[in-house]
Amino acid sequence: MKNSENGESLKRKKYENELRKLQAELCALQDWVKLKGLRVIIIFEGRDGAGKGGTIRAITERVSPRVFRVIALPAPSDREKTMMYLQRYMQHFPAAGEIVIFDRSWYNRAGVEHVMGFCSKDQYHRFLELCPMFEKYLVDGGTTLIKFWLEVSDKEQKRRFEARIVDPVRQWKLSPMDLPSRTKWFDYSRARDRMLDATDTKHAPWHVVISDDKKRARLNCITHLLKLLPYKKVPRPEINLPKRSMKGSYDDSATLKGRKFIPEKY
Fold first, then answer.
1. Cα–Cα distance for residue pair 63/60, rounded to 1 Å
2. pLDDT band at 7 (very low <50, low <70, confident <90, very high)
3. Using CA atoms, how far apart are residues 110 and 71, in angstroms rounded to an integer?
4. Does 204 reside within a domain?
5. What is the rounded distance in angstroms from the CA atom of residue 178 to the CA atom of residue 180?
6. pLDDT digits (tens, 9 = 90+) for 124-155
7. 5, 210 in Cβ contact below 8 A?
8. Is the pTM of the predicted complex or chain greater than 0.85?
9. How many domains does the chain have?
10. What is the CA radius of gyration of the chain?
């Protein structure tokens, strides 16, 4: 499993240049989504450490949070456990002119919940049976549904987990499920395969992203996303910065004297 034919890592400068071009296109996409009142859901799933969070940040860091909303739900509360399973996800679905990105989604039931024993076998099989019907209802109702599966190799997942353990600014990424997931690699593989078999449908197909090389994975994923959402660039009016009015002028910097300023250590 490789991200490129030569296996070479993408140079940072080239990556940043390519990413900036793609992010400009994402800004054009958001204008189109707003203009046409589209409703879009993008799901990111994959093994722990596959790079979902970094890919989502690359997509959203230059666009409006009023158009692109990221949903990363914690474990369900006691009250949420009594709800219809999909209920707590549906309340975050997009209205017209919105793109909602799920950093993990209702597919938790086909993955971590099943592997770690958080749901019954009946609940698991019922989910796999009903999920395609639910997604067809969603798509037939006018919502665009895009599903990405980020696939990371055993060797690379191990490397990323070990890096998190020793890095204080990345230790927070180690969830209570991350370390146990290492011992259940093949259980997760079988769960992935069953999920794809049951839910990789014509109306809501899965798009697999090879993610051992994070930079390439992000660029490939955004490029494919832009192809999946046909759009046209919306003309923008010419913008002219107005001059500052001097009406009612005063020395507004002097009035800050005596306020509590933060120390300028840098």
1. 5
2. low
3. 18
4. yes
5. 6
6. 999 999 999 999 999 999 999 999 999 999 99
7. no
8. yes
9. 1
10. 22
Domain containing 31 equals: 12-231
Residue 3 has pLDDT above 80, yes or no: no
What is the rounded distance in angstroms from the CA atom of residue 154 to the CA atom of residue 177? 16
CATH number where 128 lies: 3.40.50.300
- Helix, coil or strand: residue 19: helix
Tokens 């039931």 correspond to: 109
Assess if residue 236 is contained within a domain: no
Please state the separation of Cα 182 from the chain's center in Å: 22
Alpha-carbon distance values, 11 to 4, 8, 14, 211, 245 (Å): 13, 9, 5, 16, 47
Q: Which residues contact 101 (CB under 8 A, 6 or more apart)?
A: 41, 42, 43, 44, 56, 59, 60, 68, 69, 70, 71
Best CA proximity match to 124, nearest among 195, 23, 20, 209: 195
